[in-house]
Write a structure and sequence with these properties.
Elements: H1 5-18, E1 22-23, E2 32-37, E3 44-55, E4 58-67, E5 73-81, E6 89-97, E7 100-108, H2 115-122, H3 126-132, E8 155-157, H4 162-186, H5 193-213, H6 217-224, H7 226-237, H8 240-249
Antiparallel strand pairs: 1-3, 2-3, 3-4, 4-5, 5-6, 6-7, 7-8
Helix pairs in contact: 1-4, 6-7
GO biological process, one term: phytochromobilin biosynthetic process
InterPro entries: Ferredoxin-dep_bilin_Rdtase, Phycoerythrobilin_Fdx_Rdtase
EC number: 1.3.7.3
Length: about 250
């Protein structure tokens, strides 16, 4: 059992209990990928497993789980809402490297500077965020350019102990996911044409930023090569632009 497998198992089971979960197509060659890294005694197999689902109101629910033994454990778990809802994104980046743990949990807003949007989607989860600050303090420097894409309830932390990941981070992950699905349950479709266009642009802005700045790009290129990596990022992890182009063509 790897560090983040329980997170993934719990999330999928919880999603199944609350949503009409359906498979989301994973392009061929991305469901499972492995590579051998290191030499001699330090040789490790790195395995990347992908999961994809969709549900009413949610365009794509997807996970990338990277298992590389003691030196590397990663779970990237993201939920993208349908374009006719103003829902935020659910984002969990759970990373364990030789130097320690890097944890990022958030409901990433479409419109960070809109007070009404903040009141609707950020304010209700601030108490959850505050409840974990004692055990999961702020993780320090964060790129200035990334700030518009995160909410005031952004849980960014670098736990020293693995037990903190297994307890406090796991609990926070479950609480954020529950709160997100509560938002999904209450969400009503947006009917205004102008508002829909704004939502689409906000989603594309977020996806373009994430695809361009994906911190896993270097890791994946090292393990699996540039061609596989770029196709994985644009064809599965952040595929909205590709999907919109395909729908226009068809």
């Amino acid at each position: 059992m790897t560090l983040y497998q329980p997170f993934l198992d719990d999330a999928i089971a919880y999603l199944q209990s609350r949503l009409e979960l359906m498979p989301y197509p994973i392009p061929s060659g991305f469901e499972y990928k492995s590579a051998i890294t290191g030499k001699g005694k330090n040789q490790e197999e790195v395995v990347t497993t992908s999961y994809g689902f969709c549900a009413p109101k949610l365009r794509q629910i997807r996970a990338a789980h990277v298992q590389g033994g003691k030196s590397l454990q990663v779970l990237n778990f993201v939920i993208f809402p349908d374009l006719n809802y103003d829902l935020p994104f659910f984002g969990a980046d759970l990373v364990t490297l030789p130097g320690g743990h890097l944890i990022a949990l958030d409901m990433q807003p479409l419109f960070r500077d809109d007070p009404d949007y903040q009141a609707k989607y950020s304010a209700p989860i601030l108490p959850i965020f505050e409840s974990y600050r004692q055990h999961l303090p702020w993780g320090g420097d964060f790129p200035e350019e990334a700030r518009p894409f995160f909410s005031p309830a952004f849980l960014w932390t670098r736990p020293k102990e693995t037990t903190d990941v297994e307890t406090h981070v796991f609990a926070a992950f479950k609480d954020y996911l529950k709160a997100y699905l509560d938002f999904v349950e209450q969400a009503e479709p947006v009917m205004d044409t102008q508002a829909l266009a704004t939502i689409k642009q906000a989603q594309l802005r977020y996806l373009r930023y994430r695809a361009e700045k994906d911190p896993a790009r270097g890791m994946f290129k090292r393990f699996y090569g540039q061609e596989w990596t770029e196709e994985y990022i644009h064809g599965f992890l952040f595929d909205l632009e590709r999907k919109l182009t395909e729908s226009v063509v068809s």
